[in-house]
Amino acid sequence: MSEKRKGVIFCSYTGKWEDELEKRLQTSERVTLTAIGRIRYKFLAYLQKREDMEIVKLETRCMKNRDKGIGLKVTVRKLSKSKPTSRPLGPRER
Asked: What is the pTM of this model?
């Protein structure tokens, strides 16, 4: 890759990560986000609601500090309107 990669977006309850995600999706193809603790549920719900984004990679990891629980590392990309994400259903599958 010739372009420099920006850092990872750390998700927190303040919600600033949503604005940062929108900015980065406009300029780059893939964006990586991380979430630790209870915010991961809000984070996954947000990604599930968004129909214009695709989850490319999802990693889970137990944190060294067990109080934090499981951490998530997600790579997403914005879907282009020209490419369908799945094949259309055939006449027998409907």
From this structure: 0.68
